[in-house]
Predict the structure.
Amino acid sequence: GAGVSQSPRYKVAKRGQDVALRCDPISGHVSLFWYQQALGQGPEFLTYFQNEAQLDKSGLPSDRFFAERPEGSVSTLKIQRTQQEDSAVYLCASSQGPTYGYTFGSGTRLTVV
Amino acid sequence: GENVEQHPSTLSVQEGDSAVIKCTYSDSASNYFPWYKQELGKRPQLIIDIRSNVGEKKDQRIAVTLNKTAKHFSLHITETQPEDSAVYFCAASRVGSGGGADGLTFGKGTHLIIQP
């Protein structure tokens, strides 16, 4: 596609619910990143894929967070048993490779109530 | 891990004047330093980046300088215009190091306000 597409754009979840956030990267981009951006803060790294391989998940805040990219294109970030502190914008970014600049998606704004 | 400090947090300049935003980083192995512009409610957009093998890069009204010895880099915007108003983020990472790239570590952002 022309850009990085994320869905849903907005998600409201009750505390304790599971959510799944989708990222559709630019076609052919091998690198895919997930970031979490709290209000008024810079994005914080969550995890990185090169094709289908998850090469770095050091930024995932707890074992409630899980990401996958099974066929090396679309990725899903899953958050189990959501907590209020999970409320943030979740940004996905893709690039042609690790030495290229990223293109970010518009993000999913998650609100946990 | 990497730590990126960004200053100032808010910068107000008169239209037509220059703006400078400064960042420092802690990991001497970092080799890639992008700058992103983020308007309210929108995605971060890459505006310029620099790699550690050069000291300066310019693109029209925007320039970035890098001092590897001091571990700091700066964004310079000249002849500022109202549409430059946004939050600007610096970031650092060590890409191409093999075995996968580290993610970007971002600064906390600078809210740039262009006064008409």
Summary: The two ends of chain A are 33 Å apart (CA to CA). Chain A touches chain B at residues 31, 33, 35, 40-48, 50, 53, 55-56, 59, 91, 98-99, 101-107 (CB under 8 Å).
